[in-house]
Amino acid sequence: METPDTATEASEEAPAPTGIAAQDWATASTDPHYRAAVVDLLGALAYGELAAFERLAEDAKLAPTLGDKAALAKMASAEFHHFEQLTDRLTAVEESPTAAMEPFAKALDDFHRQTAPSDWLEGLVKAYVGDSIASDFYREIAARLDADTRSLVLSVLDDTGHGNFAVEKVRAAIEADPRVGGRLALWARRLMGEALSQAQRVVADRDALSTMLVGGVADGFDLAEVGRMFSRITEAHTKRMAALGLAA
């Protein structure tokens, strides 16, 4: 989940597609290693969207006003639509959505269990910071995907409105009580560490995805680029913290 300005920056800086990124799914998927990597990616994304839907629905129960509750319910609906797009795609390429999601369920469930928010504001920061880190990670991978898969991935990473909503509510809370800022800044730093660790564990556990990242089936990646990728993700996190009015 991200704010519109970061999406614009990413599109302006994206290099012209080469290799697999210049192919369509029909051509690229003839490589079984690439196909396996894409199935893993779509499975991870689909379970992430399902988890986001469930979490937003739960967060709505903590909303202080009826308007806030309705806003979160609308965002939850958008996340579920993204989930449906991904599972429909898996079905269309003759893959089981459940089987594709299963390898990622425990890691994502563990992450959400370890970072359960204690109140409404922590829930907003988690959705904005945690989901944005995941979106940045998937956008980096998307640049190396075939054109058809890339289009789908970028579509489901579209901001559902939660980014601007979270910024507005968190900044208002800090303005009303500056002491809130310190607590939320610590919380956001914890989320950053947990989210990056989870992303690294997921990739390490899945051979196809790790091969994609270090330059096997994906065009243009190497170990040095992986390091630069995580640096870019960290830099984007710092900018989002500033948008929230929090120290990184």
The rounded distance between the terminal residues' Cα atoms is 18 Å
Count all strands and give the number.
0
Question: Helix amount, in percent?
Answer: over 70%
State mean pLDDT (0 to 100 scale): 84
Rg to the nearest angstrom? 18 Å
- Specify the overall morphology: globular
Structural class: mainly alpha
List the secondary-structure elements in sequence, H or E: HHHHHHHHHHH
Tally of alpha and pi helices: 11
DSSP strand content = under 5%
Describe the sheet with the most strands: none
Which regions contain 5 or more consecutive residues with pLDDT less than 50?
Answer: 1-11
Short note summarizing the structure:
By secondary structure, the chain is an all-alpha fold. The protein is built from eleven helices and no strands.
What report would you give on this structure?
There is one protein chain. Helix content is 78%, strand content 0%. The two termini are 18 Å apart. The protein contains 11 helices and no strands. Helix 3 (32-60) packs antiparallel against helix 4 (66-92), helix 4 runs antiparallel to helix 7 (147-156) and helix 5 (97-114) runs antiparallel to helix 9.
Q: What is the fold's blueprint, element by element?
A:
Elements (H helix, E strand, L loop, with lengths): L3 H10 L11 H4 L3 H29 L5 H27 L4 H18 L5 H23 L4 H10 L5 H15 L2 H27 L1 H8 L8 H22 L4
Helix pairs in contact: 3-4, 3-5, 3-6, 3-10, 4-7, 5-9, 6-8, 6-9, 6-11, 9-11
Defining key terms:
11 helices, 248 residues, disordered N terminus, mainly alpha, globular
